[in-house]
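Quick one, probably user error.
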């Protein structure tokens, strides 16, 4: 795989506020990267540095071995950022056709309309589209230049379930073509499913870089879920239990020692139904890690 993005000791501040602090980052072809973090963690700032919209205070950063924002780098990048273009009096086909003229070797508007299943509203004006339809058009705009690197910021907001599934299938096709994709999203289950690597930004630094499986291994919590008529407080002080939540007689126990907790549950088994045991999801790990940072 070829290196597309290389950052060393990358730092950026707004005045006296340190937003990014000595980040090291390497992204290669064919990688899907999930960039996550709380609001204000620096995700948008990092994307702006990669796009050349802002310049780092210190450190080294190259995109396609170029300075970010260079003409060559721009031609190789597609961006699906928040805020969709609903230009009055312009149809989907007209927008994509006009956008294609800005690039030396674009995909055709007709090809994208067919590939992304936009035919049903291709001749409609942008202002007549739903939020989910506009999001799909914005994705088409990101692809019109036939980019090698994609930035996707909250890409599936407003899409229905079918559109979301089609979107992620297309992302897998792009990965197979060797494209690199960086996704920022608050829909963490999506990141968990598609990302080859997860980057967790916290206090201006990467608190974690690696696969979701590695994150789960480091974060040894498991979730034991069951139905019972017993109150949740019954399980608060069992061995290994770190948290108990319950709703409508469904109890979820987070445990840092699965075996000890299961052994402690033995006396209650006759009163437990539909018992399942799972590792923590990315959403649950994210909450725990960010809570810990605030403690």
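Nope, works fine. Designed sequence:
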């Amino acid at each position: 795989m070829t290196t597309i993005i290389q950052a060393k000791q990358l730092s950026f501040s707004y005045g006296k506020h340190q937003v990014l602090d000595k980040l090291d980052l390497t992204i290669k072809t064919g990688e899907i990267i999930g960039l996550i973090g709380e609001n204000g963690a620096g995700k948008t700032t990092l994307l702006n540095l990669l796009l050349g919209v802002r310049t780092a205070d210190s450190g080294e950063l190259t995109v396609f071995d170029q300075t970010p924002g260079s003409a060559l780098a721009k031609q190789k990048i597609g961006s699906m950022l928040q805020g969709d273009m609903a230009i009055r009096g312009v149809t989907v086909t007209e927008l994509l056709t006009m956008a294609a003229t800005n690039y030396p070797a674009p995909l055709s508007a007709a090809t994208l309309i067919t590939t992304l299943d936009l035919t049903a509203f291709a001749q409609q004006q942008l202002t007549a589209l739903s939020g989910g339809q506009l999001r799909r058009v914005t994705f088409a705009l990101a692809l019109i230049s036939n980019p090698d690197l994609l930035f996707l910021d909250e890409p599936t907001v407003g899409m229905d379930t079918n559109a979301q599934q089609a979107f992620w299938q297309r992302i897998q096709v792009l990965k197979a073509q060797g494209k690199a994709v960086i996704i920022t999203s608050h829909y963490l289950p999506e990141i968990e499913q598609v990302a080859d690597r997860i980057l967790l930004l916290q206090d201006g630094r990467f608190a974690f870089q690696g696969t979701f499986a590695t994150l789960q291994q480091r974060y040894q919590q498991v979730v034991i879920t069951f139905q019972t008529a017993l109150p949740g407080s019954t399980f608060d002080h069992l061995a290994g239990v770190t948290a108990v939540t319950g709703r409508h007689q469904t109890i979820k126990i987070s445990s840092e020692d699965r075996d000890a907790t299961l052994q402690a549950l033995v006396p209650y088994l006759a009163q437990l139904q539909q018992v399942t045991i799972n590792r923590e999801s990315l959403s649950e790990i994210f909450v725990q890690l960010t809570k810990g940072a605030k403690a």
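The first strand starts at residue 3 and ends at 14.
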